[in-house]
Amino acid sequence: MPLIYAYTAEDAERDGELLHLSPATALEAGYGIRVLLTKGAYREAVEWTRGGGWQSEDARFWDVLSVIRAAAKAALANERAYETKVYRVPNYTRSGAVSRAESATPQHLVVRAEGYNLTGEPCIIVALPGEN
């Protein structure tokens, strides 16, 4: 049966639905393939809006890359999603107000491997639980 339509991770990245943060940081952390984050995963695990200089998005991305390493390897090997968690100081409270928290809380993440484009180039996608 011929392929009629496909929406790839490459398309989602181009549309801004998946974010390819700091490829240099991912490469330095040992990832030889793209690591893409959903907008939700970026907002909850990487984004830093509170200023203060005691957190940075690059450092938070490094933390995510370090924490998901085992799940990413397993996802690539087994073609299924794995849940893990990263500890982060939240930007916002559950109600959406600016957080004043100074201690880290867990953020659950889902890590899966899939084809990046129609040629089958692999990528890692980091999402929040319940995101596709």
Give a summary of the structure in a few sentences.
The chain is of the alpha+beta class and 132 residues long. It has 4 helices and 5 strands, in the order H-E-H-E-H-H-E-E-E.
Distance between the termini: 25 Å
Number of strand segments: 5
Q: How many separate domains make up the residues?
A: 1
What integer is the average pLDDT?
Answer: 91
Architecture overview:
The radius of gyration is 15 Å and the shape is globular. β4 and β5 form a beta hairpin. The chain has one domain. Helix content is 32%, strand content 23%. A five-stranded mixed beta sheet has the order 1-2-5-4-3. The chain contains four helices and five strands. With 132 residues, the protein is an alpha+beta fold. The chain starts with 8 loop residues before the first helix and ends in a 5-residue tail after the last strand.
Write the layout of secondary structure elements.
Blueprint: H1 9-14, E1 18-19, H2 23-28, E2 34-38, H3 39-46, H4 57-78, E3 82-88, E4 105-115, E5 122-127
Parallel strand pairs: 2-5
Antiparallel strand pairs: 1-2, 3-4, 4-5
State the main characteristics.
132 residues, alpha+beta
